[in-house]
Specification:
CATH class of one domain: Alpha Beta
Strand content: 35-45%
Largest sheet: 4 strands, antiparallel
Pfam families: TseB (PF17881)
Number of helices: 3
CATH topology of one domain: Nuclear Transport Factor 2, Chain: A
Order of helices and strands: HHEEEEHEEEE
InterPro entries: Cystatin_sf (IPR046350), TseB-like_dom (IPR041401)
Number of strands: 8
Distance between the termini: 59 Å
Strand order of the largest sheet: 1-2-3-4
Keywords: Membrane, Transmembrane, Transmembrane helix
Oligomer: single chain
Helix content: 25-40%
């Protein structure tokens, strides 16, 4: 006869089986969410390695530090790196088409991300910053600042990379709370 006062005694058999099944379901869900997260992360950076190889092969950049994606009317990979003369460059690499028309920007000639963010912070100190990324809209090099303004609107602010002037701004009001 089992001693019901044992430290390992959980209760009737059905409680043990229920706890065991709940444990297995929790582990299975955890594994599934890790798999899902890794899949999403891979799709977000899909094509970065190919873009890196193409830019290095074309000798547009000698070394690449970072690649981001911009989705406008057309999608671009934006590569940060240095050319053979050790000058910092920003290269817009179009994702569509066989013939790639690259646009290269010398980082010494533009307002930096940190300066642009500081300029924005002075104009909108009550806003919640989300991100800043390079953008190419109608062939114009811009910074895309994304933030939530003091009226709780989601804002895309496009500022010129060269002088910081506003090119375009879109504000979206939330319909649901």
């Amino acid at each position: 006869m089992k001693n019901k006062r044992s430290l390992l005694y959980i209760g009737p058999k059905w409680i043990r089986w229920t706890l065991f099944i709940l444990f297995l379901l929790t582990v299975a869900c955890g594994i599934y969410f890790i798999y899902l997260y890794n899949g999403l992360l891979e799709s977000k950076t899909a094509g970065y390695e190919e873009t890196k190889q193409q830019l290095l092969k074309a000798e547009t950049l000698a070394e690449i530090d970072k690649i981001e994606t911009f989705h406008g009317k057309e999608a671009y990979h934006v590569a940060y790196g240095k050319d053979q003369n050790e000058q910092s460059k920003l290269v817009f690499y179009p994702l569509k088409g066989k013939e790639k028309q690259l646009l290269t920007v010398n980082q010494a000639d533009i307002v930096s991300k940190s300066e642009m963010k500081e300029q924005w912070r002075q104009e909108c100190d009550q806003c919640e910053f989300i991100r800043i990324t390079p953008a190419l809209v109608d062939g114009k090099e811009l910074w895309e600042l994304t933030y939530i303004d003091d009226s709780n609107r989601y804002v895309f602010d496009y500022l010129d990379m060269h002088d910081g002037s506003r090119y375009e701004q879109m504000r979206f009001k939330s319909m649901f709370k």
